[in-house]
Prior knowledge:
Helix content: under 10%
Largest sheet: 6 strands, mixed
Number of strands: 21
CATH architecture of the largest domain: Sandwich
Structural class: mainly beta
Amino acid sequence: MKTFKIVISFIGLSFFIYLSIINSYVFATTYSVSNNTIDTGGSNNQSSTSYNLGSSIGQINQGVSSSANYTIKTGYQYYDYGFSAPYITMTIPVTTESFGQLSPTTFYTVSYNVNVTTNADYGYGLYISENNDMQNSSDPSITIPGFDSGAITSAVSWTSPSTTGLGYNVSGTDADSDFSSSSMFRELSSSQSVHIAGTTGPTETTGGDQLTMTFKVSIPQTQGAGDYQNNCIYTAIANY
């Protein structure tokens, strides 16, 4: 009897930076700046059955400025961050999945959902890695490697179970574009955390961004019997 399983764990990370700029009257013997404003004040609690309104007092340059290396949010509305503190959450309903008993050169799959919710202005990125190839619990030197060492960052079509190993597919609106169909798979990596999905805006208004992870395995006739397992590590990063 041959039994195989994947143990799945996850890590969620987030960070944010507040930058506050106070505008005031500036002068010297050779110049003066007189366009100062009072940039504190306003309300986020104005609403009716048909609208919600947040207002600011005396601001002329509020908004977002950015380059490749920084983002500056100026003004009361951005300092208050739109009614709530920045956050990101990731939900995975399982901690362990099992392929069960396997027969050689036959596909077996397991699937589950991952949900990422954030109010970050620039969305989030989701990354995946593994601790090592699937290892035999009795002899870790016996492994089930990935199905294609060239498919770490770009998915390839995997339709024949005679090509053996482990791979994964991601489906959902915001999955990376190379997961263009259910037959497109990547190999897990233990040396790098690889981007698999993400958005360019917040996801909290839609109840979070839901993705479906599908893992697939096929083993050769020569695969040693035993229990095999590894850990998949998920990292969600919010972009503020």
